[in-house]
Amino acid sequence: MPSYTFRCDDCGEFTLFFRSMGGNKGSAVCPTCSEDSKRVFLPPNLYSMPHELRSRIEKGMEPRRMTREELGQKRIPKQRSSMASRPWQA
Q1: Could you tell me which of 19, 54, 16 has the C-alpha nearest to residue 32?
Q2: pTM metric for this prediction
């Protein structure tokens, strides 16, 4: 559910987490002093994840270049007869 932040003139800012998406969201009653409070419009918090996780995701967008030594030797599987590996083929 979305959260909404409101500012009370006496108590300051507070956030309501479980509020229905319908109806009036421009004002709310302060939970401390029961006065009317106006909504504060904030930008979405898109980068609230830890820095290590964010950098790992951003690095994952580019392919990593590897040398032949890093890849190791290519192992070629032993070839089987076509009848043993594909019995459904004629």
Answers
A1: 16
A2: 0.45
Q: How confident is the model at residue 8 (pLDDT cuts 50, 70, 90)?
A: very high
CB under 8 A, 24+ apart: contacts of 39-43: 39/4, 39/5, 39/6, 39/7, 40/5, 40/6, 40/7, 40/13, 42/5
Supply the pLDDT for residue 23.
67
15-51 b/e (C-beta count within 10 Å ≥ 16 → b): ebeeeeeeeeeeebebeeeeeebeeeeeeeeeeeeee
User: Where do the H-state alpha helices sit in the chain?
Assistant: 51-59, 68-71, 82-85
Residue 16 has pLDDT above 60, yes or no: yes
